[in-house]
Amino acid sequence: MSKVFVSMGMSLDGCIEGPNASLENMGGDGWGDLHAWVFQQRVFRQRLKLGEGGDAGPDNRFLEEIFDRTGASIMGKRMFEAGERSWPEEPPFHAPVFVVTHEARAPWPREGGTTFHFVNDGIEDALRRAREVCRGKDVRISGGANLVLQYLNAGLVDELVLSVAPTFLAGKRLFDGIDPDAVGLEIIEVRASSKVVHLRYAVKKRR
Ligand SMILES: NC(=O)c1ccc[n+]([C@@H]2O[C@H](COP(=O)([O-])OP(=O)(O)OC[C@H]3O[C@@H](n4cnc5c(N)ncnc54)[C@H](OP(=O)(O)O)[C@@H]3O)[C@@H](O)[C@H]2O)c1
Questions:
Q1: pLDDT tens for each residue of 9-28
Q2: Ligand 1 pocket mutation, candidates 10, 120, 147, criterion most atoms within 8 A of CB
Q3: Distance between Cα 131 and ligand 1 center (Å)
Q4: How far apart (Å, rounded) are the C-alpha atoms in residues 83 and 28?
Q5: What is the mean pLDDT of residues 113-119?
Q6: Residue 21 CA: which ligand 1 atom is closest?
Q7: Is the confidence at residue 96, as pLDDT, over 80?
Q8: What is the pLDDT of residue 16?
Q9: Phi then psi for 84, rounded to 5 degrees?
Q10: Which of the following CATH numbers is that of domain 4-205: 3.40.1010.10, 3.90.226.10, 3.40.430.10, 3.40.50.2300?
Q11: Taking residues 163-190, what's their average pLDDT?
């Protein structure tokens, strides 16, 4: 049975985006510090066409596992808008991506097996459609905060994976608006390197 999981990078003060985020300023001030470890990893450099080389150690394996387990992704419109400007012609997903949005738009097929589908009927419909095409793999809720919170509060997430970077952002906090009565957590795994700490939680419904 495929799982629904969230995987995001987070600062130590719980932010997924720095202040002053915009289409030009991507994930806001300090965004580079939040994701510094990611850009050093071999699999990420390959998938984003950033060039050869890169670390091939435990953080790279962590990212490979995330890519390998993902059969379809779901994201919010703001995350998509930032990526639309920066992903290469062959986006890193190589699988269907469902963008939850109020905007009606035809599917956008890209090189390498990624097609962006624009879903106007809410998060449950996006998940239903992602499950249909994920080929038994897992469905990743990629972000941003708005979308992740909706899925968590609706009890639709099985696993929460946070890669916590040793930096403060004082920006947009992932869990502002979380329903603590609805979302329970159990620790599955903690992995640490000198650059980042990866936390995996099973998400349990509380009621
Ligand atoms: N740290 C990380 O790992 C990470 C990962 C991903 C993203 N990010 C960052 O997160 C930021 C974006 O996050 P965000 O929370 O601001 O936005 P978001 O979740 O990406 O997108 C929110 C938007 O999606 C659409 N939407 C959401 N739910 C909907 C629904 N139920 N029905 C219809 N439309 C819906 C709405 O846009 P419309 O009304 O315009 O359609 C809404 O304004 C970016 O800065 C990105 O860089 C960080």
A1: 999 999 999 999 998 998 99
A2: 147
A3: 20
A4: 14
A5: 97
A6: 45
A7: yes
A8: 98
A9: -55, -35
A10: 3.40.430.10
A11: 97
- Decide whether any atom of ligand 1 lies within 6 Å of the 162 Cβ: no
Residue matched to tokens 């993902």:
70
What six digits make up the tokens of 63?
């990212």
| Domain extents in the chain | 4-205
Q: How far is CA 39 from CA 51, 148, 156, in A?
A: 11, 23, 30
**Is the model's pLDDT at 1 over the cut of 90?**
no
Ligand 1 center from residue 183 Cα (angstroms): 20
Q: DSSP letters of the chain?
A: ---EEEEEEEETTSEEE-TT--SSSTT-TTHHHHTHHHHTBHHHHHHTT--S--B-SHHHHHHHHHHHHEEEEEEEHHHHHHHHHHS-SS-S--S-EEEE-SS----EE-GGG-EEEEE-S-HHHHHHHHHHHSTTSEEEEEE-HHHHHHHHHTT--SEEEEEEES----SEETTTT--TTTEEEEEEEEEE-SS-EEEEEEEEE--
